[in-house]
Structure formats: structure tokens, C-alpha cells
Protein 1
Amino acid sequence: MRKGVYLTLLVGPTVPIPVPREVVNALTGVQVTVAAGTRSGFQLTFTLTNKSPLQTAFLLMAGQTPLLRVIIVLTINGLPQVLMDGVMTHTEVTSGGKPGQSILTVTGEDLTRVMDLQDFSGLIPFPAMPLEARVALIIGKYAVFGMIPLVIPSLFTDVPIPVERIPAQQGTDLKYIEQLASQVGHVFYIEPGPVAGTNTAYWGPEIKFGVPQPALNFDMDAYTNVEALSFSFKSTEYTLPVVFIQNSLTKVPIPIPIPPINPLQPPLGAIPPLPTSITILKDTAKLSPMQAISRGLKVAGEAQDAVTGTGTLDVLRYGRLLQARKLVGVRGAGMAYDGLYYVKSVTTNLKRNEIKQTFNLTRNGLVSITPVVPT
């Protein structure tokens, strides 16, 4: 096994290739942000001389190729992991700290940016196709980017009868997929990997269970792998969602409160907060009962995260990259805050001889429900 940390940068239209050594030598900083519920992004910083041809090369490539693809791979102790697979969206050149130097900053977003370019409103019909089939068909258009669809069927399958109505796409591919996900309480995101050039396009319920990542240790002497860690408990911001289901005979809407009970999002804390307000979802009466309940479960899952944590860790001491949208254990923070958490977002910052991550954690209550966490 090859020890150490190695960065691989691939740039090019559609199918990127490794950049020359001159580009890697000029690279001084990499920042990648992955967060649940928002689009992921990256930023590359280069220090160049004012006469360096790399400045013109990047600007020309960005101008002549609107979808200039960038793949960032980080290899730690022989284990490669794709940090980002996206496209460049903005380049900026500023004066450097020394005479004759310039700083080139390249900013980009993940491949959802590619899906949000063209508006197809009313142009693409979907006769007799459930939501899942529409999503898979749209994602299939981006197979050239190595996009593999992972579509989880909703609890209620609605197949429109063509003689009654034929649904048509509204908005861009991304906006339409997100609209379909919102109808049934699902989420949509693109996760790079597992190998460079491939991506998993996930459309399904937000899942908050699985094998936890190694624990984040705080204030544990030699076992400490977190540089900073703080928690907060918002006991007065938990709201109880209420959906409306319309009676097919009387047309009278029936209110149904939705408790935070979801098998895909099991409780991580033993003492959850009590609801202090009610959120009425007025637009659910036009949906089917199962679709309305699915929408309510999504809102309930988002509202119940009363415990939040933020911190910073050194990847070299942690031994691996902390990943967003997965569980992780916490030790050394005290009885109220120890236990398992859902990783809401992670920002990775790479510099020469330094890899650090800032993260945000969420949980639905105080006191761990598990006696131990994986180390």
C-alpha cells in the first residue's frame, strides 16, 4: 500500500484528463463543500506569474467549452476517494502578494449545474409514466457524464391515464426532478464516485441510518482527533407539521398531524424536544393521502433536528475523510451530546501538507440511544 496523501486533478470537456505537472505545481488551495439539501461546489486557487500561459489557457478553455468538467480525487494511504465531479462556472484573476504574481481562482459546482441549463417546459411529455420512470428517463440523458440513476420508488405510485391527462416537463431537468421529489417527500442529489468519472444520481427518501463513520473524539488526550467542537440545543424551534387530506365524498379537508416517526430516519437522541408550534401544509389537500403523508414526514424530519454541532478536524489525524449525508459517532462531548449524529455538511480545505475539514452535525434529541459508538 502506498502511504501518504496524493491529489489528482482532471480537467477537460465531458471526459477530463489529468492536468500537466505545471498546473499541479501552481495549485495552492482546494476547497470542496458537500451539504445535504443544497448543491455541492468547489474552488481551486492557483498562484501564477503574470506571464504564465496557464492564465490564458484556463480562460480560453472556460470560454470555448461552457461545460469544462473538473474531477478532484484525493488518495489517502492508497485509498482513492472522489471529492468532486463538477463543472467550472467562474474564473477570476487578482493580483498576488508579490510583484509579478497573480492569483487565479476557479469556482465550480457539481453536475446538477449541467442539468439546470436548458428549460424544457412543455416540450417533453410523459404519457402513462410514474414519477420514478420520469426521473430515470431524465437522468439517462446524462450518461455521458458517467451518471448512474439510483431511483427509489415512492410509497404511492401515481400512473396518469393518457386519455385523462399527459404530464409534461416544467422547467429544467433539475427543477423538474426536484419538483417531483417534493411531491412525495424525496430528495435528489448527485454523489461522485466510487471511481473517477462515475456519479450516482440519487432520487429517494432521505436516509439517516447505516454503518457509522469512525468516531470524532474531543478532549480525550491522545485519542483526540477533533480540533474544535461545539453543540447547541434549540428546544423552542421544533414544529409539528399538519397535512390535509380531502374526503372524496364530502370534499371536506381533514387535518392530520404528522409525528416525527420515520423508519428511514430512526431517532438518534433519547430525549427529543417537545413541539412548540404547528406548521400547516395547506397545499397537501390536492394530493393523494400517501403523497400528503410523505410530504409531512419530510417536513417533520427536517424540523426535529434540534441538536446541532459544528467543528473542525485534521484529516491526517482522523485517518480518512469525513463524508456528508452519513452517520458519525461523537465521544468526549459529555453525556448530553455523545452518540451518533447525521453529518449535514462537510467543507474540505486542502493546502500543501495540510488537510482540514469543517463539518455540521444534526440530531433529533439529547442523550445517546447507543451505549458505544464505532471507533
Protein 2
Amino acid sequence: MAQRIRRFGVGQTAKVVALLYAIMGLIFVPIVLIVSMLSPNKSQFGTGFALALPIIYGVSGFIVTAVSCALYNFVAGLVGGIEVELDGSGT
């Protein structure tokens, strides 16, 4: 049976995505630090940027998701939400 996503809770959805983005930022910290250490030009991205990366990702993820959810809720009110088909078997 097809169902529609009528609206997203803006705050809750933005919090979840912000946390996911912050975790992704943490995953990138070692990569940025290694690339920075191996770079012949040491003035590129430093330790400060690498440590700020999860915060930057989290904040930007929150803002972009909140705006996207608000826009989705507006558009879904005009034309209907995204249609999904769910398996009701429970297994």
C-alpha cells in the first residue's frame, strides 16, 4: 500500500542530520590531518581546521536540513508528499 510523507518535523530532522554530519566530520579529521602533514606547503589546512571540521559539518548540516525540511513541507502541502510503499509484514 502506497503512503505519502506529508511533512517532516523540521527541528528533529535537522538535529538528527546535524549529528550524522558531525560524525562524518569526525571520520574526516584523520584524513585531513594526514594530508596536511604530507603536503609540501604546510600553510594549507592545519590542525585547527581539522578539529573545527565536525562542528562546521554539524552546523551546516543543521541549517541546510532545516531549510530543506521547511521547503519540503511547503511544497508537499501544494502538490502532495513523496509516495513510498511500505512492507507491512513486520519482519
Protein 3
Amino acid sequence: MTILSQIRNGEPQRRNVDRRAPIAPLVATLRAAEHALRESIRVEEERTSVRDVTDPGYSILARSMRTRAENLRMTITMLEAERHAA
């Protein structure tokens, strides 16, 4: 077996390790961002005294932050699934 074929055979394994390695810190950063958004939503709801999302007076800012937080949650879930599958 030549060195080149050994390198080629080891390549897919290395790629999986390389792809998984940066996912954990990324997920941790996204979790922190989600947590900060959730806290900001809580503060905005307290400020406006409206916590019901279906209320017409619900804060547009809080609504926007909710959407961002949900998008982060979906991204985190997707990244974790990819990390476990790899």
C-alpha cells in the first residue's frame, strides 16, 4: 500500500473530525446568544407589561427577538444532530 493510498483512505475520517471539532464552540456561542435574547424578551415584556404574544399591543421588538431566538434554537438543534451523526 502506497503512502498516497493511505492518505486517501484516512481522509474521510479526518474530515469528520475536522467538521465536528468546531461545532461544539459554535453551539455554545449560539446558546449564549439565545439566552441573551430570551432575557431581553423578558425585560421588554416587563417594560411593556404585555406578555401575551397574541395581544395586539405586544411589543414588535419582543416579537422580533422571539423569532430570532427560535431561529437560533432550530440552528442549534440542527448542528447538534449533525455533530451526533458525524
Protein 4
Amino acid sequence: MKDAIAEVLKCCSNPTVARSDSATLSRRAALVGDWDALVSQAEAHGVGPLVYAHLRAAGVPVPDDAMRQIRGIYLQHRYRNQLHEKVLCDVVTRFATLGLDLLVVKGAALSHLIYPEPGLRPMSDIDILVKASDSDRVEAAVRELGFRTFSPKGPVVKKSLPTALLFLDGVRIGLEIHYDLFEPGYAASFRLEDMRGMPLRFAPGKLGLAAQTLGYEQTLWHLAHHLMFHTTVFDSFRLIWAADIVGFAERFAVDIDWELIRTRYPIVIEILSLLHFAIPLSEPLLERGAIPLGRAPGQVLEDFEGWPRAAMADQWEKGLLGIAEDTLSPPEWWLRLHHGLGSARDVFWYRWIAHPMEILGWVKQLLLERLGLRSPR
């Protein structure tokens, strides 16, 4: 990501639009030479609507064509989220009628809890957490709501059903029905049966309907792991996930039990420590969370660009040395995020041992696939 574009996106990635630093944002925006690239990057990172809101609130001069594009992105997501909100209300109402427990997680809840308006938080699907023991009743309920569902054969062995689909006014609405917030085999696990403490309540729509999501500490823990899980040698980091974590921590800093976070969910502290260098945390949050800050990591927001993210055939223009460097020496920012290291911990072991061993593991996987001894990833 080019430096000028990255600086503008960092300025515009805090859900608290009122905290926008107009002077800094204007200075950084004046250095942008390719506004089409900025619009494209903003949409790829899921922060297009936030960029529009920040630029507009700060009164930053933007080329007319670029402003039309970014406003179009905002309006598109606002419309889509209105449809998502309607469907979510139908799901919550139907489940309540049937006595089915559910928690709404990720964007469908966060868009109401921490964003000035739901349309500022793009969503591809609605994610809900239900009990695996309710799977048959849940599937029947969503079918009654007009979703097409695809039920696995035999007992539930995965974390979720395949996405249930509904088309409303020509828009695809996906419903992700989870039994566990994490993939099988992942280091963390959380089922609805594991819920402890009070869930957070929020009101989607305008009917006074109450929905529930994870509690303060569990939400931050889930978001931190979700960010790490999707920052891999295959998947790209997205700024919207960082915005979710920082926005939630800022919004509920007074309510969060930071001692519980430090003792039970320390990964949250590590991730916030690192994200501070992309989306600066407020002084009250740094103090309340006792979040340690090391030096600024190198190459903030730069992504992994080596193999196996991109096929070798697609990288020949770099030459073998270039491919090897991108593969074995990824940006420090990415490496810390990938391993949940924060900004204050030493990175030596992960740079020289853990990361090369991970790449060797994928080389072994590829060889076994080529020999027909293992299924493709």
C-alpha cells in the first residue's frame, strides 16, 4: 500500500468519526496522487463508508470524481445494510417466538454498537451463534423465513452450517449459522453453551426489538482472534477488522473489565498494542487498559506478498531472490499481527524460526498434494 494512501486510510479508520483530526487528514489527503487507487483500497479494506464520513466531516477537498465514487460506495453499503437489518429483525423475532437461543456476532452487532450509523460498517453476511443441539429447529426456522439452506449429512462436525441464502430486492443476504465461533482445530473455541456473564443488548431496526451479542470481554477476545485467524499467508488483513476492535475498546473502555482481559484474554492487549500504530488509541484507553507500547513496528499496514499467497508463476518478474525475500522476510507489522505479538514483544524467534518453519510446512503440504497423498487446502 502506497504511503500517502495508507496514511489517509489510517486517519479514516476510527469508527468515532467525531474524533477525526481535520488538519492531519487534510495534510495527508493533499499528498495523495492517485485517488482511484485510494478508493479501491478503501473498498478492499472494508472502510469505504468510513473514509467518506471522515473526509466529509473534516471538509477535506477531494477531486469530484473520487468523491462521487466514495459516496457511491457509502450509499451502496447503507442500502445493503438496511436490507440486512430488516432480515436480522425477522431472524431475531422468529427465533424468539420459537424459544431458540442465539447471539448476533461480528458486523451485524457492531454496526449498531459502535458505529455512528449502521451503514458505515459494511457486511457481507449476518453471523449468528446457536446451539448445535438446536440445529434441526434452526434450519427449519430459517427456511420458513425464505432462506435456502444446505444441511450437512450426519452429525454436526463443523463449526457452522453452510451459508443460508436469501435474495431481497436483488441483494444477496447470507446468514452464517455458527455452532462455534472458531474453526475446528483452532487454538480457541467458543460455543453458546460456554456463555458466561451478561450478554450485550442492542436494538436493530426501529421497532424496539432487542438482540444480544457477546459480553464486553468476550467480544474483544473474539475480534482479536478473528483478526489473527484471517491474517495469514493466504488471506489479506483488512482495516475494518482493526476498526472494529479499536472502536469497541474506545466505546466501552469504562465498562470493560481490563483486569479480566489481562488475566484471561491477554491476546486483546497484544493486538491493541499493535493496532495503536495504525489507528492511534486514546490516552484514556491506553491508561485504563495498561496497554504497553513498544517502538513503532516497521511497514505498518504492509501485507504479506510472497508464496503461497501468490503462485510462483505469478511472481517471476520479481526474480527468485525477490520471491524468496517476500516469502521468508515478510513485513514486521504483518508478522507481529499474524502471531499476535503486539508491539513490545521480541520478534526474533518468529522472524528466523517460526515463520520459515511455517513456510516449510506449506511446501510439504504442496508436495503431498502433488503426490496425491493429501487433499488440497
